[in-house]
Design goal:
- It is a single chain.
- It is built from eight helices and seven strands.
- The chain is an alpha/beta fold.
- The protein has a seven-stranded parallel β-sheet with strand order 3-2-1-4-5-6-7, with helices on both faces.
- The chain starts with a strand and ends in a 7-residue tail after the last strand.
- Bound molecules: NADP nicotinamide-adenine-dinucleotide phosphate (NAP).
Length: about 240
């Protein structure tokens, strides 16, 4: 029986790469999107043509009620949830002194509270099944802190703390919880950076290049298939941060 995977923010960037890789491996997937309906519909069409099982579901994961509907939809379609990949996220670059309450709350709602909502709604089913895997896409900045991204860094550090705590609490129910903390990956999230800025960043990275979404997707696939890794923050960053 194929495993059922929810990928939040599966419509673009890292999430889309994870959906692509897992669909090819015959996982059955619920691709969650928020605003990119056209892209999500197109992706589903393409996968259906290839005989792959990808359902799509619109939900703003920063809202508990919408997350509940996403989880109910998945159970209705597939009867179970084996894997939850918390990938949906936003970023914002602002001086700390310019961050408004609204900026702060939006950042925490989308990047951290969403992980609380999805994990809690899904854990009920996983605990009942005595099996499950939760993968959180956090960030290098949650580990080392980023200037002009304090709210983003705080949210991602919170995600990593949730990963470690949940791994301890849910381990006895055979549920593994891990974070993947990317460095800089080539997606729309970094489109605001100029060519010069990208070149400067590359010079700070020992491997001398920006990361590929496929690296993150391969790590997610490995974390699903392995059965002894839990509570870890795996940073895929070209050596930008080495602990
Ligand atoms: P991206 O290309 O901007 O894509 C973001 C995805 O998140 C989109 O699919 C978007 O869906 C979805 N999303 C945003 N807000 C959402 C919401 N409220 N509800 C549901 N979905 C929502 O970003 P990315 O680079 O792939 O980032 C993916 C994850 O990796 C994020 O958590 C990000 O923080 C993390 N990350 C990225 C990098 C990097 O360098 N790219 C580095 C470290 C960590 P719609 O388009 O449908 O709205």
């Amino acid at each position: 029986m194929p495993k059922t995977v929810i990928v939040t923010g599966g419509s673009r960037g890292i999430g889309a790469a994870i959906v692509n890789l897992l669909a090819k491996e015959d996982y059955q997937i619920v691709l969650n999107y928020n605003k990119s309906e056209e892209i999500a519909k197109k992706m589903q069409e393409e996968f259906t043509k290839l005989g792959k099982c990808v359902e799509i579901f619109q939900a703003d994961v920063s809202k508990r009620e919408e997350v509940k509907k996403l989880v109910e939809f998945t159970i209705q379609k597939f009867g179970k949830i084996d894997v939850l990949i918390n990938n949906a996220g936003i970023s914002q670059t602002k001086l700390f002194t310019d961050i408004t309450d609204d900026d702060w709350n939006t950042m925490l709602n989308v990047n951290l509270n969403s992980v609380f909502y999805t994990s809690q709604e899904v854990a009920k089913y996983m605990i009942h099944e005595k099996e499950g895997c939760i993968i959180n896409i956090s960030s290098i900045w949650g580990m080392v802190g980023a200037s002009c991204e304090v709210h983003y860094s705080v949210a991602k550090a919170g995600v990593d703390a949730m990963t470690k705590s949940l791994a301890k609490e849910l381990g006895p129910s055979n549920i593994r919880v891990n974070s993947i903390a990317p460095g800089i990956i080539d997606t729309d999230m970094n489109k605001y950076l100029s060519k010069e800025e990208i070149e400067e960043i590359k010079q700070e990275i020992p491997l001398g290049k920006i990361g590929d979404t496929l690296s993150i997707a391969k790590c997610a696939k490995w974390l699903i298939e392995d059965n002894y890794t839990t509570g870890q923050v795996i940073s895929i960053n070209g050596g930008w941060n080495i602990n």
